[in-house]
């Protein structure tokens, strides 16, 4: 129980710093957001994923936990996509963004302290990170890139530029180039490099490891502060046309995904006890701010993502406490 409260307390404090900064420095907020977003995307997030994975015992997480994480995320995303596409009649880009927001959990920020303090093991959170950053994120980034091409002006396409902006091209990139660019994003490459070091027991000299560790440790505070800055002046469910989507995404994320995780872990993989608590607790986490970062990076509308993140963050604490009470 204490681990759940500690994890959420850390996140809320850092988001609060971003909100306060946007209030005290209203004329500088936009510049700070535009400057920090590419720094997080290209530098600090890849460093964090590398250092987190490099010292992990991969055999433990790959045997059971990672397959569970993949199945749970896939089932959750499919349920959202079916409702969004065929019942709410939403376009592909909006459906893709909402589907990722409903299944991509905040493992890196809240999941780490919860796993360490409430479960006593990093295996559940590392498995989710591996599944999300090596499989789920590349799949969704490919979809985002395709959606970005479809929604770009005729004769041009929008692609992430070196400073986090967009660059217009005369011809739309081929599907192969789109997939390659999506899979070869900095965060996934950092995660893959960390997994490689963990699998081969490679180590880096302190002169290299220490700066990487410092950069990685800066990623979570920066990302949460940027998200906090984006919240000033925003009201959840303010855009009437997105209310059904936000409610759907929040319910799927916080109510359905933990149930799916329990069913998959308990009945398919025979996971019990503290290990089962860890799996379900990870599924009950709120939507990761990375979804906001990814959707903005590919030029997609972020209002839906921001509202789902906000609603899931507000409601995830009681959801996580309920999980802890039922399975703890």
From TrEMBL:
Its main location: membrane. Coiled coil: none annotated. Keywords: Cell membrane, Membrane, Transmembrane, Transmembrane helix, Transport. It holds the Pfam family Mem_trans. It comes from the Bacteria. It is found in: Cell membrane. The chain crosses the membrane at residues 6-27, 39-56, 62-83, 95-119, 125-147, 187-208, 214-234, 246-269, 275-296, 308-327. Belongs to the auxin efflux carrier (TC 2.A.69) family. This is AEC family transporter.
């Amino acid at each position: 129980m204490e681990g759940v409260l500690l994890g959420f307390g850390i996140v809320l404090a850092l988001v609060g710093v971003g909100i306060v900064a946007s209030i005290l420095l209203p004329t500088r907020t936009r510049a700070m957001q535009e400057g920090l977003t590419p720094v997080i995307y290209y530098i600090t997030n890849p460093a964090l994923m590398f250092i987190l994975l490099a010292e992990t015992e991969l055999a433990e997480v790959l045997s059971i936990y990672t397959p569970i994480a993949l199945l749970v995320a896939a089932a959750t995303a499919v349920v959202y996509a079916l409702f969004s596409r065929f019942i709410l009649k939403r376009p592909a880009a909006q459906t893709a963004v909402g589907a990722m927001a409903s299944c991509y959990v905040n493992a890196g920020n809240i999941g780490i302290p919860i796993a360490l303090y409430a479960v006593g093991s990093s295996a559940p959170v590392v498995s989710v990170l591996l599944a999300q950053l090596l499989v789920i994120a590349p799949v969704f980034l490919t979809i985002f890139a395709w959606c970005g091409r479809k929604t770009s002006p005729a004769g041009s396409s929008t692609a992430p530029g070196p400073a986090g902006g967009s660059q217009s091209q005369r011809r739309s990139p081929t599907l192969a180039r789109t997939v390659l660019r999506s899979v070869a994003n900095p965060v996934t490459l950092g995660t893959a490099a960390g997994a490689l070091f963990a699998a081969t027991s490679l180590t880096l000299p302190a002169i290299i490891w220490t700066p990487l560790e410092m950069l990685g440790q800066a990623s979570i505070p920066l990302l949460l502060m940027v998200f906090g800055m984006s919240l000033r002046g925003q009201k959840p469910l303010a855009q009437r046309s997105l209310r059904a989507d936000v409610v759907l995404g929040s319910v799927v994320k916080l109510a359905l995904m933990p149930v799916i995780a329990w069913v998959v872990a308990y009945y398919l993989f025979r996971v019990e006890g503290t290990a089962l608590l860890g799996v379900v607790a990870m599924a009950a986490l709120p939507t990761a701010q990375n979804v906001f970062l990814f959707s903005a990076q590919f030029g997609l509308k972020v209002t839906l993502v921001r509202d789902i993140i906000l609603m899931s963050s507000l409601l995830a604490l009681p959801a996580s406490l309920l999980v802890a009470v039922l399975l703890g």
